[in-house]
Amino acid sequence: GLPAALPALPLELTVLYNSLLFTVGASDSVVKGEEEGIRQGLLRVLEACGACGQDLGIEELWQKVLQEVTMEELQAPLHRLGALQAAWWLAAGRLGSVTGLFQLLSTAEDPGRAHCSEGQNKLLSVIKAWQVPPEEASLPLVQSAKDLKEILYTAAAFLQGLQELEAGNFPTALSLLQEAAGGFCSKKILAQIYTCLGCCAQRMDKPQTALQHLKRALQVDFQCLPALSHAAAVYHKLGETDAELQALTLLYEALGKNPLAAASCSPYFLMRTELLVHTPVLTSLLRRHHPSEVKYLLAQRCLQDGRVADAVEHYLDFLSLLQEGLQQQVPLDGSSALPRIPEVFLEAASALEQAGRHQDAITVCEEVITRTTDLIPRVLRVEERLEQPECSSPGAELAGGLLSQKKESLCCLAWRAAGYLHQGWAWAKLGESKEAVTQFSRERTSGACCLQVCVCLPVTENLRSEVEVLQKIRLLSLIGRGTQFLELGRHKEALLDFQHSLQISPGDPAAASYLVQALWKLNRKQEAAAQWHKFSQSSPGEDGQQQGQGRPLPLYLVYCLEQAVFPHSEPLARSIQDYLGAAAQHSSS
């Protein structure tokens, strides 16, 4: 409440500077409301000089103070307060305001010093050009302006590097992040900067450089686990499976341990770089994986690489985590590496089948079937009018909700059908052909009605992926049931299934080969030879063996696809060629 007095202002501004830093240190964050203290300090300066600035914004207020207040004894306190203001603006992402403020600070001392050379980063140039005011022994500071300048420089380089990284300007991002890495910060922040450098190099398609940066991050701070996660992703892209699995294993073990103290922040400062840099892109790059996500990645990679025994172990470990309330521990914002839980069960069943544990696979699939059956409506219509709901129309939200419900219903239908499909192949491997036929038939009755609707109507783009998976499952079930009919000597029924398979996927190599075999076993050798010639002259249909319309096949269906491959191509081809040769010789004689 005392009126502002020029002799007391240096002390008053220094106390304000120290108190704001103490507030930052106590809250461990740059509190937005505390910035008002700086504004009040500037108004006190103007009041002491007989001026007024109540109606000015904070940027205009700084401009007025620095241009009109020329007393030498106020320059150092004002400059320190200006650096503190820059910290608040950096934390808020107001980089342009920071640039303007430092230009004012430098121009106030030397009009030529704020010049930025061509090709230089303007913000970093003006921060570097700012001359730190000398400290006075009579006015002790809780954090020197020199240290604050270094922190601001590092934070500005880091923030701009992240902005350029997000914008896809990778060479510029790399240069700025490298500048930040050479700055003044804790080991924790330095490790984060190296992690971002690794991600940037990875996006520039420089995997070896990325690995060097990520290893450097771990050397600086061994608790920077996102670096280990990104390293596993780089190894995956390089196809170095052993290194990838080793990285994932280390990551899983580290996540399972009790967190230790954070990496050293020594020397400790009240205002630190980590308090000024917190952007969505950094949060995304440094997202800490839940142990269950890493366990799933281990299981998935092992299954993809054919390491069946390891895959089974990891999948069973993961399924046991479900009993610990996994859904409450994993983020539901789409950032998780986990697929939907029924898909994980089906992948586990696939691993168990490949390991020869067919009864266990049947049990796991029964869990999927039981849980999804009640979620599938009796009638599911896929209508073209739901394809592109207009956002501006009154019913857009309702139409979007209906589309989402139908998508979920199709997913449940696909999971249940895949469960029956896996059970069919498991029973086939156990030599129980009749039970296998039953399971393959249950898949057909569970999804055939919906599939007929989907095939007959123009399928909406939003549902196309789910429909293609259902069609692939139906194709594999028909082939599977047909093979078991052949095992049981029911060749006519097998022939019908293979014919239906080719209606779903014209030109499918497995269905075509089994069709020829069925005709051959029915002693319709001339038809078999004609069909064999027809399919051998044509290329596989668009559906192909691995993808539908260019979309990858779900991992839980890959093993079923492998089981459907016709295993007797060469013997059958020789038999047909012998038959054709004999027929030609007979006709010529």
TrEMBL record:
Q: Where are the TPR repeats?
A: 475-508
One GO BP annotation is:
interstrand cross-link repair
PROSITE patterns (alphabetical): TPR
Q: Which SUPFAM superfamilies match?
A: TPR-like
Sorted keywords for this record are: Signal, TPR repeat
* Annotated Bacterial transcriptional activator domain residues: 459-537
From what superkingdom does this record's organism come?
A: Eukaryota
Q: Supply the InterPro entries for this chain.
A: BTAD, FANCG, TPR-like_helical_dom_sf, TPR_rpt
Q: PANTHER family from the entry? A: FANCONI ANEMIA GROUP G PROTEIN (PTHR15254:SF2), FANCONI ANEMIA GROUP G PROTEIN FAMILY MEMBER (PTHR15254)
Name by which UniProt lists this protein: FANCG protein
Lineage, opening ranks? Eukaryota, Metazoa, Chordata, Craniata, Vertebrata
